[in-house]
Amino acid sequence: MSETKSKRPDLEMFKLSCRLLEMRRRELLAAEWKRNPCGLLRGQFFNLMLIRFILPCNLGKIMELTGLTSAGASLFVDKLVQRGFLNRTDNPEDRRNVRIDVTSKGQEFLSGVESRINEYITSYFDTCSEEEIREIARGTDIICRKIR
Asked: pLDDT tens-digit profile of 86-118?
């Protein structure tokens, strides 16, 4: 038994829930990519889903979040600019820093995906009682505060 596990057995269910949520998130995104004729390669789609919450941002933030190299992140952004999902604009305050933002086409696409993700997540709780929903909400509130 690991030292961490023996010190905090009360966190085992939380760790399991994190792993299950990550697995289900990946499954959902894979299914969404297959069902959506958006023309993006799988890696492009997954990276777009990663960066959607930090837009607008710069290339450095995209590299940090996706793990792509400078060249890889630049190519990723270029491809999504060509497909009309992202805009790349110069930062007037720092010419070396490029601002990357979502286009209206990209926002419409992401809104559709987000809506389907929310429906899927909500379906997990269809059979929960009101008290269970309140308990989940209380626990989730604590988790979100700690993670932030």
From this structure: 999 987 777 778 899 999 999 999 999 999 989
- What phi, psi does 87 have (nearest 5°)? -115, 145
Name the residue with tokens 């930090």. Answer: 54
Whether a cis peptide bond, with omega within 30° of 0, leads into 37 is no
Cβ 58 vs Cβ 73: under 8 Å: no
Q: Is the whole-model pTM more than 0.85?
A: no
**Which of these, 66, 41, 56, lies nearest to 107 by C-alpha position?**
56
**H helices of the chain, where?**
3-7, 12-35, 42-51, 59-66, 70-82, 104-123, 130-147
Answer whether 99's CB lies under 8 Å from 91's CB: yes
Domains and CATH numbers, the chain: 10-147 (1.10.10.10)
Q: Report the relative pairing of strands 86-91 and 94-102 from DSSP bridges.
A: antiparallel
Q: Measuring CA to CA, how many Å separate 128 from each of 28, 140, 144?
A: 21, 15, 21
